[in-house]
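Database export, one record per block. Field names are fixed; values are copied verbatim from the stored entry.
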Amino acid sequence: MGLKCGILGLTNTGKTTIFNCISKNKGEITSFAFSASKSNMGMIDVPDPRLYEIDKLIKSLKIIPAVVEIVDVPGLAKGASKGEGVGNKFLADIQQTDALIHVIRCFDDDNLAHVEGSIDPVRDIELVDFELQIRDLELVDRKIQRLEKAAKTAGDKDAKQGIEVLNKYKDILSNLGNARDVEIDEELHTKYVKDMLLLTDKPVLYVCNVDDKSAVNGNKYTDAVIKSFEGSDTEIMIVAGKLEAEIADFDNDEDREMFLEDAGLTEPGINRMVRTAYKMLNLQSFFTAGPKEVRAWTIKKGMTAPQAAGVIHSDLERGFIRAEVMHYDDFINLKSEQACKEKGKLFIEGKNYIVQDGDIIHVRFNV
């Protein structure tokens, strides 16, 4: 399973600069509002130093990190739902994503005009939320109409229950709330809501895009954002987009490390962004390792060994017999599979084994 994230925000927030830092594909950067005519699509390698530590001992032909698919939609504007700017026609591009990365402008730049005429990140968050809420409300209304028709013509009891559930969402969205704020039983959510892929139902990582000098400690704008979410478990990050772009341009690891040190950073903010997205979505990685490749795979926490095997290939889940498992720390400390066997650190696990983050797994199967 792969992770797919959508990047959104008002126009001229530095969204595409951040997209270009992390994506293998590059989007066009411009200072003109509403100049983008399509969404940018890209892939990101998930930074995981453990892959390289495993490879030092395995010495395989190649290393394959897990990947994140990323969609950067053109900048929104107040009134997008009514067709202002580029309108909200690109929001469908992030409908299929697992999580949203909302980039907020937290920097001053006289050469880059703000569409609202001033820098106010809390207002900007509310503006974008409103556009997403309007789109979700339209989807909810449409589904209620369909269910009402089914309830009248066929007396469908399920339809009546669905209408009750969806009216809760309609009330929240109509009052400038988000779908994720609705308290609902998981089963009812799956049955009536999940298929709509509501944008405000997705987890959100707020990225405060700051100037270089604010990269470490933030500024008055980031303080306002943090204060606005006080008391919630909202994920907020501070990233200096222009600085990250310079870091991304370095080919040499040593030069990159020196640049980071000079900027007062321990690692690129982009690495933290991907890790935070994993955390929000309750994801983790396990590894396969052999002479041909060392590879990371993404799974949900709590997945069993057969489910994890199915992420590699459906045949492995269907014909699962057992999993041979080494924990990452054991393998690194003992330095070989043979040593793990001798020390009793290679475990034979069955269908009920819950895969742990960093497990190195070899699947035995028969189809």
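Remark 1: The first strand starts at residue 3 and ends at 8.
Remark 2: The chain has 13 helices and twelve strands.
End of record.
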